[in-house]
Fold:
Amino acid sequence: MNETMNRKDLIVMKLLHYFITEKNYSPILLQGAEDEIWLENLDSDYQIVRIVSNYIHNDEQLNFDLFKTKRIVSKIRKKIFSFHMDVLTIYTDIGDNAHINDIHKMDCAYLYDEKDLSKYPFIEKHFPDMSKKLIFSEEGVQLFIKITNDINQKNKIEAEKAEQIFKRKKPVVTYSLLAINIFVFLVTTIFGNYNYLLDRFCLYGPYIREYQEYYRLITSGFLHANIFHLAFNCYALYIIGSQLESFMGKGKYIIIYFFSLLLGSIMSITFNDNPSIGASGAIFGLMGSLLYFGYYYRVYLGNTLKSQILPLIIINLLYGFFVTGIDNFAHIGGLIGGIIITMAVGVRYKSSIQDRINGIIITSIFTCFMIYMAFMMRG
Structure:
């Protein structure tokens, strides 16, 4: 009996070492999941890997295990906002009356030891280096110590990365943007030159195209119609901007804010010839950026995406469609701009070089298209 347990412990430890240290999987804590370990990596071909060490003695128990797995995966998928999840289940103790090769709805494997990997082409396809990585020069206690130390070190590094991302930082840029907006409004109120500033710096397509007053694409984002308009935008900027600045960093945050403002302004003058002012286009860009960031970190922010970010975007867009006097084209342009520019600048520890290149290409094409629509088609 001890020999069997040692064999199972050994293969489980080797698999954990491989998936955590080599493939960047993270453990999932589940209630009621005994004698099995769940790992997730949303960027992998198999988003979920299960390592099951309890004894499966017949087909009935095997089918029940798979049924239970599907229910748990469904709950995880909803929680982390994923539309589809592929699951790999690796069993380490199966009886002769459990016919694992007859399972077709989910990829399953039985590994008595690493030599059994050759029986499962789907594992070799997605993890071609697994057979080599499960071989160690250490044996016995030294092997367990090495594996445990490597896993602990990897978990420590990942924890430090998460802390760097989600640790609250002072939102200096957001405070500066708030100060500029408030200062401009106070100047227009105290000196009574609102109409002059509005005429000189608001977003107005005919003036931008005819007189090349391109600065209006940016300056309009710092003008507000009244104290309520200012208060609403400043509150939204403080709530959303302070979070995004903390997540993305000050440099990327500045790029996201001003690009969203710019693209929102360009889309506005493409479809709207009325004067427009306000920071809401940039704020929608921040929401789009937060949505993109939250998708990459949906393990942490999945519930927030569903319950707060998405409803906030949808409600505000719908409000803009049904209420007159709101420049919803600037909102839509800012939202798109926030998403695509975040693709281009990248999300820390998540975006690959290829992801950023794709983002730069998409951002460039869409921006050029909108400039053409705004200045060539309307010119």
In short: The CA atoms of residues 340 and 363 lie 6 Å apart. The chain has two domains: 2-165, 168-377. The first helix runs from residue 2 to 22.
